[in-house]
Amino acid sequence: MTKGCKVTTDNIDFNHLLRSNLERVFNERDDDKRRAAVAELFVEDPIMYEPANIVRGQSEISRVAGELLEQFGPTFRFVPDGVAVGHHGLGRLAWHGGPERGPVAVTGADVALVEGGKISRLWVLLNPQ
């Protein structure tokens, strides 16, 4: 790695895009705001790969994110760990999740394929407990 290595290439701000996805999609409890964020951050026909599920389309990604928040309770949040990195259209952001002021319940990373400045494919990778 060279000194002064840039975090973004190809005019993609991976950190902004992946942190926006975490905050505005996966931490957003308001359905309308979440749907608007998905429309802004994802391509028209995105695919999200979860460990046990493949989710297709903006509306389904929004629905799954909302159900996840409902399942984990009203104070659950995902928090980024460090800065997202990426190049050549592929970015990664590590994160942890749990109740506010509570113990960490899950850790993992989002890996995104970015096309035209938007997420086209998203892999949700969970760390072993």
Automatic annotation (TrEMBL):
It comes from Bradyrhizobium daqingense. It comes from the Bacteria. This is SnoaL-like protein. Gene3D superfamilies: 3.10.450.50. It holds the Pfam family SnoaL_2. Residues 26-121 form the SnoaL-like domain.
